[in-house]
Give the backbone structure.
Amino acid sequence: MLLTVDVGNSQTVLATFDGDRRVGSWRVTTAARATSDELRMVWRGLLRDTEVTGVAACSTVPALLPSLRQLLGSLEVPVVLIGPGVRTGVPLHVDNPREVGADRVVTALAAHELFGRTRDGRGRPVVVVDFGTSTNVDAVGPDGQFLGGALAPGVEVSLDALASRAAQLRSVELSCPPQAIGKNTVAALQSGLVLGFAGLVDGLVTRIAAELVAQFGSAPVVVATGGLAPVVVDSCASIGEREPDLTVHGLRLAFQRHRAQAAR
């Protein structure tokens, strides 16, 4: 069983795969100062008796990398930690490839493999909207190349900033309001955050899609992913597909590619 681990700023997603089939999936709060022993205990508690035959991981939390590397180095199975210098097969068409987070790279890989082909097998561009600590809107070309994208604050980050900086505002449940005109503070906040972010996403997707059409001559498929996607995605007019854990699928694909290259 392959274990994939996506360490994000707010949450860590773990998933197990039997071949291409996802078997289990868990989300836990990311502890940036966790030791390798603490990580081991969390993983063991979730996996229980699952026999792990390989691990693919990526992290956007630099402070956690030493502990993660220590844990991965102690495992007696093949391990791939995605980062600079690790080949994923994703061409990075950006100014500085080393600036691109490993999570964005493997997410682009999964987006292309799962959604980037038409029924007749031709490649098509994909726009990935990742709702996490930040809201990422990334463009993937028809050959699987990562083209860049847009980064905006996440919904929860914006809510926390408002609650901490505005004396009359407070944290509220993130849910879609029945109408845009809020009749009280809670409804007004929900409107501004959920419907406001839906408008932000639709605006960015429209602009990015127009640039992709101009470059490649075909409209992209738009895919939503990330832990906060269920909060906003139903209010977005531009999103056509959903895959909650696109990144772990990308880790699976990167592991398979890495193992295939090593076997040559």
Remarks:
- Residues 5 and 57 are 5 Å apart (CA to CA).
- DSSP finds seven helices and ten strands in the chain.
